[in-house]
Specification:
54% helix; elongated; 402 residues; 7 strands
């Protein structure tokens, strides 16, 4: 096929190619390639160690397309990394990935190019095809996995997407070539989109069609192994977010708005109703006093996201367990535990009374029980006070405006 027969010249205009990774998809591969060829012959195909009829299908395309063959199956992550590398060597700016199992429609390729036209040539862009997850053909496990992935992507980047797991994507090759990538399986698709967002690449969803035909489709996703690898990756990315990228984003936003304006609009969220602000304080204090050692920050932020509360306020008040307050929290928790267990309060807390492991275990149980009670009491009282305070300020502000 020559360039004169291609239907969309914008692949040349935007210096874009199409990447098709394939592994044992002999039933759908030829149809997908033919569909893509209706738009461009700038195609890179990786035969990831297929053991079916894939090699013979690809023979007729050897002279016109870039075809790479792995002698053994290495996984989608390795195939993608090789695709990024080859696209960079060939000088492409963008690469659209389309699965070879027939679930993606080549007729959606122009949708990606339309977005590139709107974006302009000076900006980098990552586009992820957004599938209709309510379609009856979409497996329930895919819908759940997508919601799970969307949530953690938001935690890690602050970007809300409807679909983070679709393999139908447009990648900015120049920006990817600068990333340090570590994963090699399905989880690479998550690592790439998170790290590109951290590099200030714009990430957006665009609507695409999807078809799950179980009579033709061959899925290579291994639920237990791959979900475990994805969970480990998300744990690491969330850790980096909390200790580096979240503070970095926060500092950037404060500098852009100015501290006073940022505090009013983003921290106090002046437009939030009093109950929302008070609830954020209640949540933060409860998590901070409760014995969720090592998980208080991630719990406060995650639950604030779930309940759509102010994350900054929840995070701030969850840090009540700082050195000056820790002795008082432990003491109060232990005494509350004693009351709850029908014991007398021990105002002295003589450590010499602990004579065995059983005493330690009983004391720990008393502390844990008491800490939950103390957390509930302190957070509720503080929440009520905060609600009254914010309600008073709101009514006063309304009266002044009137």
């Amino acid at each position: 096929m020559t360039s004169s027969t291609l239907h969309d010249h914008r692949f040349e205009t935007f210096n874009c190619c199409v990447f098709i990774p394939t592994y044992n998809n002999q039933n759908t591969l030829d149809r997908v390639i033919q569909g893509v060829l209706e738009y461009t012959d700038r195609i890179i195909i990786i035969n990831d160690g297929s053991t079916d009829n894939t090699a013979s299908i690809l023979e007729k395309y050897q002279d016109n397309l870039t075809i790479i063959t792995f002698p053994e199956n290495r996984g989608k992550g390795k195939a993608l990394r090789e695709g990024f590398k080859r696209a960079h060597l060939l000088g492409y700016e963008y690469m659209i990935t389309i699965d070879s199992d027939g679930q993606h429609f080549p007729s959606d390729l122009p949708v990606f190019l339309d977005e590139l036209e709107l974006q302009g040539s000076d900006s980098s862009l990552l586009l992820i095809g957004s599938r209709n997850m309510d379609d009856p053909s979409v497996p329930g496990k895919s819908s759940f996995g997508n919601k799970f992935s969307n949530f953690w992507y938001y935690v890690e980047t602050g970007i809300k997407l409807k679909d983070t797991q679709s393999g139908y994507r447009l990648y900015p090759i120049r920006q990817i070539s600068k990333l340090r990538l570590f994963t090699t399986k399905f989880e690479l698709e998550i690592e790439v989109i998170v790290k590109l967002a951290w590099k200030n690449v714009e990430v957006r969803n665009i609507p695409v069609q999807v078809l799950y035909d179980e009579t033709e489709r061959v899925s290579h996703f291994r639920p237990f192994k791959d979900f475990t690898r994805i969970s480990i990756l998300n744990t690491w990315l969330v850790t980096l977010t909390l200790f580096f990228y979240l503070p970095k984003r926060l500092i950037k936003r404060i500098k852009k708005k100015g501290f006073k304006k940022y505090w009013k609009e983003n921290v106090l969220r002046s437009n939030d109703p009093p109950i929302k602000k008070a609830s954020a304080i209640t949540l933060g204090l409860f998590i901070g006093i409760s014995p969720f050692w090592g998980f208080q920050t991630i719990l406060a932020i995650s639950l604030a996201l779930v309940f759509k509360l102010n994350r900054a306020i929840s995070f701030l008040f969850s840090n009540i367990s700082i050195p000056p307050f820790i002795p008082f929290i432990i003491y109060g928790s232990y005494q509350m535990g004693a009351v709850a267990m029908g014991k007398e309060m021990d105002a002295i807390l003589n450590i010499e009374d602990i004579k065995s492991g059983t005493d330690v275990f009983k004391g720990l149980g008393q502390y844990i029980l008491g800490s939950f009670i103390l957390a509930t009491i302190v957070s509720l009282i503080s929440g009520v006070i905060a609600y009254l305070y914010f309600s008073f300020r709101k009514s006063k502000s309304t009266a002044v405006d009137a």
